[in-house]
Amino acid sequence: MSLLEVMGLTVAAGGRRLVDDVSFDVSAGERVGVIGESGSGKSVTSLAVTGLLSPSLSASGSVLLGGREVVGAADRALRPLRGPVAALLFQEPLTALDPLMRVGRQIAEPMRRHLGLRGEALQDAVRTALADVSLPDERIARAFPHELSGGQRQRVATAIALAARPQLLIADEPTTALDVTVQDEILTLLDRLVAERDMALLFISHDLAVVARMTDRVIVMRSGRAVEQGTVAQVIGAPQHPYTADLVASARALDSAIDAPAGEAP
Ligand SMILES: Nc1ncnc2c1ncn2[C@@H]1O[C@H](COP(=O)(O)OP(=O)(O)OP(=O)(O)O)[C@@H](O)[C@H]1O
Ligand SMILES: [Mg+2]
């Protein structure tokens, strides 16, 4: 059975369709990318599959997450799924972090709630979680989010997302807000953690190179529709939709501009 099965998902704001009849699935341990230009509906899709859409938006179709229907479900029914089944990592770590709570407590909270850890065991688990995201410094657990760098915050947000041991990590442009060196470190970190924990990954990005690095299969979104799906090799090697062909061509142009010796036209 799929961990996530999306069938005919449509999300509308009033009469406008932000996501239009999208279907895809993610199996346990599988890595799937979602790529598309700004405004194509990638984030709305990631929020819809975890039941986190703003109340002004209405969803129809079906989303089975861990076998449970998300569309139309009460928030109370979905809370047990968020964390152990699927966790979300956002572009801007500050959205996920509570500014008034020390980060150690923010990592501890889902461990207490979903894993039932208490006392010494909980403190050990928090320490391990920080070490897992390469933040071994004891000081970090006692810090507030504003006392950390952007890269450290995204590592903490990753530790929180992984705290309840999700089967599926949904990462929505998790490195876009970071500078390139830090981006690379976070991608390496996510790659390692997903592999070590045998997690499934739904990785959202507008960057084809990053999606190709992180995932095996990709869904191409345009104006709310999934216009193409296939393995990374298929989609890059033989794009079927003109929009995908454009994406591949511009990634290649950038590549050869970087490879060309100085002064030579790409
Ligand atoms: N709460 C909302 N109410 C109304 N419209 C919304 C809402 N959230 C998003 N939209 C609209 O839905 C469309 C898709 O937005 P979405 O955030 O999913 O794009 P995206 O593909 O994630 O883009 P980006 O790459 O810039 O993050 C956009 O036109 C956006 O303005
Ligand atoms: Mg987005």
Structural account:
With 266 residues, this protein is an alpha/beta fold. It has a domain of 65 residues. Strands 6-7-8-3-9-10 form a 6-stranded mixed beta sheet, with helices on both faces. The protein has a 4-stranded antiparallel beta sheet with strand order 2-1-4-5, with helices on one face. α4 packs parallel to α7 and α7 packs parallel to α8. The chain is globular. Bound molecules: adenosine-5'-triphosphate and magnesium ion. The site of adenosine-5'-triphosphate (ATP) has 14 residues, from α1. The site of magnesium ion has 4 residues, from α1.
Task: Spell out the blueprint of helices and strands.
Blueprint (H helix, E strand, L loop, with lengths): L3 E10 L2 E11 L4 E6 L5 H8 L8 E8 L2 E2 L5 H4 L7 E4 L3 H4 L6 H13 L3 H14 L5 H5 L7 H13 L5 E5 L7 H17 L3 E6 L2 H7 L2 E6 L2 E7 H6 L4 H18 L7
Bound molecules: adenosine-5'-triphosphate and magnesium ion.
The site of magnesium ion (MG) has 4 residues, from α1.
N/C terminus separation: 47 Å
Number of helices: 11
Element order: H for helix, E for strand: EEEHEEHEHHHHHEHEHEEHH
Question: How much is the average pLDDT?
Answer: 94
- Catalogue the ligands: adenosine-5'-triphosphate, magnesium ion
Structural class category: alpha/beta
Please count the beta strands (DSSP E, at least 2 residues each).
10
The helix content, as a percent range, equals 40-55%
Main beta sheet: strand number and arrangement?
Answer: 6 strands, mixed
Strand sequence of the main sheet, in spatial order? 6-7-8-3-9-10
The rough form would be described as globular
Proportion of β residues?
Answer: 15-25%
Residue ranges: pLDDT <50 for 5 or more in a row? Answer: none
Rounded to an integer in angstroms, the radius of gyration calculated over CA atoms is 19 Å
